[in-house]
Amino acid sequence: MSGNRFADTFRHKGLRKQLAETVRKKGITDENVISAIEAIPRHWFFDSSFLEFAYEDKAFPIGSGQTISQPYTVAFQTQLLQVKRGDKILEVGTGSGYQASILYQMGAKVFSIERQRALYQKAKEMLPAAGFLVKTFFGDGYKGLPTFGPFDKIIVTAGAPFIPEALIEQLKPGGIMVIPVDDDDGSQTMTTVEKAADGSYEISQHGKFRFVPLLGDKVHD
Ligand code: SAM
């Protein structure tokens, strides 16, 4: 690795192509999602001493007790969102900023909120420096971003004990929310909420995953 923080070598690009093929083999069919996985240098979201883990299809610690999600999980949630260019998307749980960058790469206007101050600060500096123009916020994702909503899509990237009412309210008619909802066994069921034009909504389930928890109440300084 050269001293350049945002180096992207042929080797990185080759590993990314393999990662894109891995998520395809695991069942991802949205070509725009697969292209975004191939385009975004995941190693930029890792500390330099852990670069060799960047292109494994695994979650990895990012500090503050949090993780960058597994690429397959990022691809699966993104596919469920049915992202279109120009979509206004709220992400709850900025973490490393990787998921937000995938959405930005797909042409979305991304608003991302994080409750851990250290992670928020890091993503706020890193994302624009890398050229990913994501709007980042420090705060409690249970409340969403009422002054910036409503949103075409909402993605929650931590395990939620329930679907927050404020987030359903901030979804536009015709909008989709993707949220992992806690089960009794410590895992989560990937859940979508699709809001109809009349404001009613339909909930569907899409299999089991495992996330760090969506934490309530206080933000963490
Ligand atoms: N999307 C991230 C990425 O691409 O790296 C991974 C997110 S990590 C699995 C979950 C994140 O949700 C953590 O960074 C955690 O601090 C954050 N989080 C937990 N509870 C939250 C809340 N109430 N509001 C906002 N963020 C929250």
Class from helix and strand fractions = alpha/beta
Question: How would you sum up the major sheet?
Answer: 7 strands, mixed
Radius of gyration: 16 Å
Question: Mind telling me which CATH architecture of the domain at 57-209 this is?
Answer: 3-Layer(aba) Sandwich
Strands side by side in the biggest sheet: 5-4-3-6-7-8-9
Shape: globular
Low-pLDDT residue intervals, each spanning 5 or more residues: none
Q: Taking all residues together, what is the mean pLDDT?
A: 94
| Total count of strands | 9
Please state roughly what percent of the residues sit in beta strands, choosing from under 5%, 5-15%, 15-25%, 25-35%, 35-45% or over 45%.
25-35%
Hetero groups bound?
Answer: S-adenosylmethionine
Top-tier CATH class of the domain at 57-209 = Alpha Beta
What would your notes on this structure say?
This protein has 221 residues and is an alpha/beta fold. The chain has a domain at 57-209: Vaccinia Virus protein VP39 (Rossmann fold). Helix content is 29%, strand content 26%. It is built from six helices and nine strands, in the order ααββαβαβαββαβββ. The strands form two sheets. The chain has a seven-stranded mixed sheet. Strands 1-2 form a two-stranded antiparallel ribbon. Strand 8 and strand 9 (201-209) form a beta hairpin. It is globular and about 50 Å long. The relative contact order is 0.13. Bound molecules: S-adenosylmethionine. S-adenosylmethionine (SAM) is lined by residues 66-69, 92-93, 95-96, 98-99, 113-116, 119, 140-142, 157-158, 211-212, 214-215.
